[in-house]
Amino acid sequence: MATTARRTTTNGTGPSLGPAEAARRHGAGPAIWLAGDPEDLKIWMERGAAGIVTNTVVLNQMVQKYGQVVDVVQRYLDITDKPVVVEIDGHTTDELLAVGEVFTRMSDQIILKIPCTSHALGAFRVLKAQGVETYCTTVFSLAQAAAVAQAGVTHILPFLEPVKDLGGDPTKLVRDCVQMFSGWEQRPYITAALVRSVETAYAALRDGADGIIVFWPIFEEMMRHPLTDHWNQTFLDEWIAMRDAGLTQGVPISLEH
What we know:
CATH class of the largest domain: Alpha Beta
Mean pLDDT: 90
Strand order of the largest sheet: 1-2-3-4-5-6-7-8
CATH topology of the largest domain: TIM Barrel
Structural class: alpha/beta
Number of helices: 12
Number of strands: 8
Order of helices and strands: HEHEHHEHEHEHEHHEHEHH
Distance between the termini: 62 Å
Radius of gyration: 21 Å
Shape: globular
Number of domains: 2
Helix content: 40-55%
Largest sheet: 8 strands, parallel, barrel
């Protein structure tokens, strides 16, 4: 059985907190994780995004553009010091561990993302013992969430938009997971995945998700609101009026409108 390099505390005594768990200990609030092309994501990493999340669909698109998958992952690592979630796949527990080791050896920023399968349970157990954070993706039921949590996964990813596409309540599983794990002292994150609209992002955050995963255009759209636009323009006009009246000497205000 392949083993992943053990992550240790600074004094070498045992598994350390992973990058996402360390962030939670600091109480930063719900996390917004971004997906997309590394060339598009760099600016958003500097604007408060929690980290980068990949899936095999995105990775396959990126390798067509940039080459080998390890080179694509390195591109993500090169643009941020925040966590980078790499989705892997495989047919057995041993294969998942062997594949995962390739990426966890690249950087302690790496979190492994594994689809919800029975052989993933063994991988989650081993990786937890090694101090490697994990995401479980393609979660569609409370029973699945309970099973992967028991195995030791760090993040559970309820899929939202596919449920919405079938006419269901996209955030019901988020609410159910929040309730089920509410009494756990060391509960997994509930991180909403396949969030493709501002409306679904709002619902997930309202219903108690610890974080959401969106492509960067949705993140940008989340910052828009007609009333925000109106009042931002009102305040900017007053700011410029003070400048035009010569009342902002010593303040470096741009001349551009």
